[in-house]
Each structure stands twice: as structure tokens, then as C-alpha cells.
Design brief:
alpha/beta, Rossmann fold, 4 domains, 7-stranded mixed beta sheet, 15 strands, 17% strand, SAM-dependent_MTases_sf, tRNA processing, tRNA_uracil_MeTrfase, tRNA(Ser) (uridine(44)-2'-O-)-methyltransferase activity, EC 2.1.1.211
């Protein structure tokens, strides 16, 4: 790195790592011209037959970003790869704009970098090792209705982080005893157990995948009510991975379990001590960031030296809190626990009975999961929303002579078109407009935050892309064709070719 006071030029060499550990790396040289607000990217990967296919890591041409009159401009050479050009224009440039806006909103971010508490080199190697060991098998055998790629590789990444965090904890035993509160699918417990640690996962509801795990993986279906009877004195670590209503309780339970009990906490949904939804108090902050600060304050009240880190997982909520050391001596532990209970009473405005519950009005999750993915919204509301969005996207088609898909629009642009009562109906089902439109994938294509009308599928295409089971059972031409009834130019396919029926509703 070189910096000159007169020129304000900074040079950075980046080593770009592929997702698969066995693939080759790429290298970029980044030139920061701070005086002229220009950053230029050069591909400096050594030329070798093994390194020819690196286009998935970085563009093989030079490009730059310039900030001029509060406008960010992307400059690309004329001989550049078209696919890579599109990636820079559609993905990278909008992301830079977003980062710039976020930086303006948060002057002092809680967490500037990822994986600050562990070695990034060790993480990269360990993650790829666990990914090969558990990832493929779990994705192929995933019995849940959720996306296996997201949940499997997210838990593999969290397991990697914890294993390296524990590896660094040389003061205590190399093999940890842990309790995962709100363990969900139990995959994290499965991996940590297989890697030699001893623990248990507890959740209010059993999942189908629990039956897939071997008998040495301890998973319990149980409702946890924060109280003196629900502490874990034998545990070295408590884990709260998207633990919902138990999130603010994780550092409290850890403190009351023992002086030496540590915790790892990855907050997602925001809850108060009594199980009600947390309400933002400062409108200048996002709900998520304010909640992270709130949980951090609880950790500090519980006497933890609290570290904040950012994980590398496929989620927008990646900030974790880690409490390993106490700010007080062990002989004052009983007094600190008493002070914590006083704080809880004050914060929740409820009295407590230690044996039964630290908060009498605590609301645990229901053991029966409610379906909340926009599929339970009334058909009239769904039809109204679909009609409203489609009309907007196709408004220019009447004047066109040829059949057209219409225009493309961002999700946030389409939300402004909908009546308040429709937005409330979607919110009540824990889904947004994007979820509803994806449920109607035969009409809409949703990609990179943008929506466009989808070209209707032919009968042959439906048979071709059906990868589940017996193709003879695939149903075509059963329901009325939406395009035939609603597109200004009708359906572009013939009655025979269209996978839907050309009849009037």
C-alpha cells in the first residue's frame, strides 16, 4: 500500500477467493485516486492455462468508478466482455450506491469488517472443508419446505465461525459443552456434535429433519420459559441463532447459568423480554441496528465484555454478539445476577417469580407454526394486487403493434401503487410484495429487486423443466391462461402450445 500526501494515491492488492476451495484464485490491483475521487480496478491475475477461466471472480478488463458532482459513474473499455459489463452495471454499481448511502446514514457503524474475531484464512479453509463434508449431503436430503441452499450453507458458515472461535479459547477446555436455544432445524447442533463437541439443541417445535440425524445428536422439543429452573450450569456456551423471543434472554440465561458460561448470539427478529415485538425508539436508526444496540446494552448489564462481529452468511442480518469474558470478578457473581433481575423487572414493567418465570407475562412461540408466506391471503386481495401490478407493467402495450412483455419496475416502485389495506394484508401474513409475486411466478419474473411480466411457457417447456418424479403426472392445460384473459394483446402462444387453457374466465 502506498500513500502520498500530495497525490493522495493509494494502491491495494486484492486476493479474490473462489467459493470452491480447490478452484484457482484471482488478483486485482485497486488504485484509489482520492483527490479526483476515482477508483480503478486492474486484473493482475498471472497468465496461465489453469487461470484462464476466472471471469466468475473478477472482470478480465480494466474499469473505474468516478464520483463527480454527487453522481457515481462507471467507465468500461470498448472491448470488454459483455456479460461482465452487465454484471458491473446491474449488480456492482447499484451496490456501490447503496454502500454510499448507508455510510451517510451511519457515521459510526457498530461493525466495520467481517470475521474480526477469527482468522479469515482459517475460516476460508474450514468453511470449504465443512461445506464439502456436510453441504451437498444435507441439500440433497433436505426434507423441509425451506430453501436448503440458504439454510444449509448459512448453518455451515455459523458452525465454521464457532469452531474457530472455540479453537482460540485456549483458557478453557478444547472440547466445548453447548446449548443451542431455539435450534430450529438442528443442523448447527449436528455439525458441532460431529466435530467433537458435546451439546444439545432445544426448540419449541420438532422439525422433520430431526429424524435424519444420528442418535448422538441431542435435540429436545421443549418450551423454554426464562427462569431459575431453565439455566445450564454445565454449559460452556449458549447459542442463540435466530432465537426470536429468546434473543434478549440469551446473555441473561448465560449469566445465571454460571460465571464461566459464554454466549454467541445472532439476532434476527426483534423481541422484548416479555416476548412482544420490539418497537424502534429512534427514527434516525433502522429497527435492526437499534435492536442490535439494545441487545448489546443487555449483554453489558449482564457483565459481559461484548464483541460485535459480522458473519459471512447469505442473510441481511449478519451481525453477531459474542460474550466470552466478564467485567467483574467471580466472587461478586451472585450480586450481579440479582442486579440483572432488577433490570429485567424495570425494563419489562412486570414482577417475576424466579422458579416459574423471570417475567410473568413472557409469551413463548406457539408450538404449531402458522403458515405466513402470503398463501393465506384471500383470493380477491391477491387478484386485485396482481391486476394492479400487471396493468402498470403493461400500460404501454396497447400502443405497440407487436406482443410485448411491457416494462420492468423495481419492487419499491410497485409498492407505492397498492392501497394501504392490501399492504396490511400482506404484512399480516409475514410476507411482502416480492413473496406474493413469486407465488404467481407463472405471470411475473422477479429478479434482482425488479419485476417484469414473464413470457408464458409452452407445454413442451413445462415437461422439459419438470424435474420432480413422473412426468406423465405433470398437469398442463388445466387452468385458464392469464395472458389470454388479461394481456392487451392476448397470449402469444397458440391454443395447442400454451400450457394453460385458452378459455375466458
Amino acid at each position: 500500500e502506498h500513500s502520498d500526501c500530495d497525490s493522495y494515491i493509494e494502491i491495494i492488492i486484492l486476493e479474490l477467493l473462489p467459493k470452491k476451495y480447490t478452484d484457482v484464485k484471482a488478483f486485482q490491483l485497486v488504485c484509489l485516486d482520492k483527490k479526483n475521487t476515482i477508483v480503478t480496478f486492474y486484473n493482475i491475475t498471472p497468465e496461465s492455462p489453469m487461470l484462464w477461466n476466472i471471469s466468475n471472480l473478477c472482470p478480465d478488463f480494466t474499469y473505474s468508478l468516478t464520483l463527480l458532482n454527487e453522481t457515481l459513474a462507471l467507465k468500461i473499455g470498448p472491448d470488454s466482455n459483455t456479460k461482465q459489463q452487465k454484471w458491473l452495471k446491474d449488480i456492482v454499481l447499484p451496490q456501490f450506491v447503496k454502500w454510499g448511502r448507508d455510510e451517510g446514514e451511519y457515521k459510526k457503524p457498530l461493525c466495520k469488517e467481517s470475521l474480526q474475531l477469527i482468522s479469515t484464512d482459517k475460516y476460508y479453509k474450514k468453511y470449504n472443508e465443512l461445506k464439502q463434508k456436510y453441504g451437498k449431503e444435507m441439500v440433497e436430503n433436505w426434507p423441509e419446505g425451506t430453501d436448503p441452499y440458504k439454510f444449509v450453507y448459512e448453518d455451515v458458515a455459523i458452525a465454521t465461525y464457532l469452531l474457530l472461535l472455540w479453537e482460540n479459547d485456549i483458557e478453557n477446555t478444547p472440547k466445548k459443552t453447548f446449548v443451542d436455544l431455539g435450534c430450529g432445524n438442528g443442523l448447527l447442533v449436528y455439525i458441532l456434535t460431529n466435530e467433537g463437541h458435546n451439546g444439545v439443541g432445544i426448540d419449541v417445535r420438532k422439525r422433520k429433519i430431526w429424524d435424519f440425524y444420528p442418535k448422538n445428536v441431542n435435540l429436545e422439543e421443549k418450551t423454554i420459559i426464562p427462569s431459575d429452573s431453565n439455566v445450564f450450569p454445565q454449559a460452556d456456551w449458549l447459542i442463540g441463532n435466530h432465537s426470536d423471543e429468546l434473543t434478549p434472554w440469551i446473555p441473561v440465561i448465560a449469566s445465571n447459568s454460571s460465571y464461566k458460561c459464554s454466549f454467541f448470539l445472532l439476532p434476527c427478529c426483534a423481541f422484548n423480554f416479555d416476548g412482544t415485538k420490539y418497537q424502534r425508539k429512534d427514527s434516525s436508526k433502522s429497527q435492526y441496528m437499534e435492536y442490535i444496540e439494545y441487545v448489546k446494552s443487555i449483554c453489558e448489564i449482564c457483565g459481559f465484555e461484548t464483541n460485535i462481529d459480522r458473519l459471512k452468511i447469505p442473510s441481511t442480518k449478519r451481525i453477531c454478539l459474542v460474550g466470552q469474558k466478564k467485567t467483574y470478578s467471580e466472587d461478586t457473581h451472585p450480586e450481579v445476577c440479582a442486579q440483572i433481575k432488577k433490570y429485567i423487572n424495570k425494563d419489562s414493567s412486570c414482577t417475576h417469580d424466579s422458579q416459574r418465570s423471570w417475567v410473568l407475562e413472557f409469551q413463548p412461540r406457539n408450538a404449531v407454526e402458522r403458515v405466513r408466506n402470503c398463501t393465506q391471503i384471500g383470493s380477491t386481495v391477491i387478484n386485485n394486487i396482481v391486476s394492479c401490478i400487471a396493468k402498470y407493467l403493461l400500460e404501454t402495450c396497447d400502443s405497440e403493434t407487436e406482443w410485448s412483455l411491457g416494462k420492468e419496475a423495481y419492487i419499491h416502485e410497485l409498492i407505492t401503487l397498492l392501497p394501504e389495506e392490501n399492504l396490511k394484508a400482506m404484512k399480516a401474513e409475514c410476507g411482502g410484495l416480492q413473496t406474493l409475486l413469486r407465488n404467481n411466478h407463472q405471470i411475473f419474473k422477479v429478479q434482482n429487486g425488479k419485476v417484469q411480466i414473464r413470457y408464458p411457457r409452452t407445454v413442451d417447456e413445462v415437461y422439459k423443466y419438470n424435474t420432480k418424479g413422473d412426468k406423465s403426472k405433470t398437469k398442463v392445460q388445466v387452468k385458464p391462461c392469464w395472458f389470454y384473459n388479461n394481456h392487451p394483446k392476448g397470449c402469444p402462444l397458440t391454443d395447442i402450445n400454451c400450457s394453460y387453457l385458452h378459455i375466458r374466465d
